[in-house]
TrEMBL record:
GO molecular function terms attached to this record: 4 iron, 4 sulfur cluster binding; metal ion binding; NADH dehydrogenase (ubiquinone) activity; oxidoreductase activity
Signal peptide: none
GO terms classed as biological process: ATP synthesis coupled electron transport
UniProt similarity note: Belongs to the complex I 75 kDa subunit family.
Cofactor(s) demanded: [4Fe-4S] cluster; [2Fe-2S] cluster
Name recorded for this polypeptide: 4Fe-4S Mo/W bis-MGD-type domain-containing protein
Record domain 4Fe-4S Mo/W bis-MGD-type: where: 98-154
Species annotation: Phaeocystis cordata
Keywords: 4Fe-4S, Iron, Iron-sulfur, Metal-binding, NAD, Translocase
Metal-binding recorded as keyword: yes
Domain of life: Eukaryota
The keyword NADP is annotated on this UniProt entry: no
Entry GO terms, CC: membrane
């Protein structure tokens, strides 16, 4: 909301479209640049950056393109204030409703350590588990968002 008790103008920022996996709520952004540093230093891509200076600075993609990195979902875990969240998982379940189960990703040959959060028999989300020897704190988008194929888009008849 742009209204409040204070006489000064509130800063309102339009939410950006970063693609089908990452949802933005840019009014929460505190410009810590964790997401920008992750994209350049760890993922090795120039997808995110800071434009503008001072109070007019904004974090987003250059020239309104989408995040196309195979590791773009990791910015969701890095954001300290929830300005970057998971689009498929948004508003589907609360943390206290989920039962975590430690597992290993079998979608590729890396064997990344993951945590599968379930509600009943339905997989709600997949998060990374820290293992310095294998995947540190990162997992690929394929591992993070593969749970959609466990319930939906399945063949019912041969």
């Amino acid at each position: 909301s742009d209204r409040g008790r204070f006489v000064g103008q509130k800063r309102s920022v339009v939410d950006k479209n970063l693609g089908p996996l990452v949802k933005t709520v840019m009014t929460r952004c505190i410009h810590c640049t964790r997401c920008v540093r992750y994209a350049t230093e760890v993922a090795g891509v120039q997808d995110l950056g800071v434009t503008g200076r001072g109070g007019a600075s904004e974090i987003g993609t250059y020239v309104e393109k989408l995040m196309e990195s195979e590791m773009s979902g990791n910015v969701i875990d890095l954001c300290p204030v929830g300005a970057l969240t998971s689009k498929p998982y948004a508003f589907t379940a609360r943390q206290w409703e989920l039962k975590p189960t430690e597992s290993v990703d079998v979608s590729d040959a890396l064997g990344c350590n993951i945590r599968i959060d379930t509600r009943g028999t339905e997989v709600m989300r997949i998060l990374p588990r820290n293992n310095e020897a294998v995947n540190e704190d990162w997992i690929s988008d394929k591992a993070r968002f593969q749970y959609d194929g466990l319930q939906r888009q399945r063949l019912n008849v041969p």
